[in-house]
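Before surveying the methods themselves, let us examine one representative protein, written as a sequence plus integers encoding its fold.
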Amino acid sequence: MQEILYILLPIAAASGWLGARKHYAARAAAVEMAELRRVCRNSMDYLLRDSPDKAAELISGVLDTTGDSFSAHMALAALARKEGQAR
């Protein structure tokens, strides 16, 4: 009987650790998405008020420089060229 407990205890600890890891990863992703939504909402407000430079500053401050955000960086560059600014 004790042998079964010695086997089940590490399995229970590992499953608890994996569950907590998944929970906290999902929570971090939700916080990041909320920040992105806030920035997008504020940058759209700036764009509608004809302040594209402020909108570009907001968006570029949040984006990382990985390959995933390449299209967003290209859109910001097009916006800067349209405004006559070099970034």
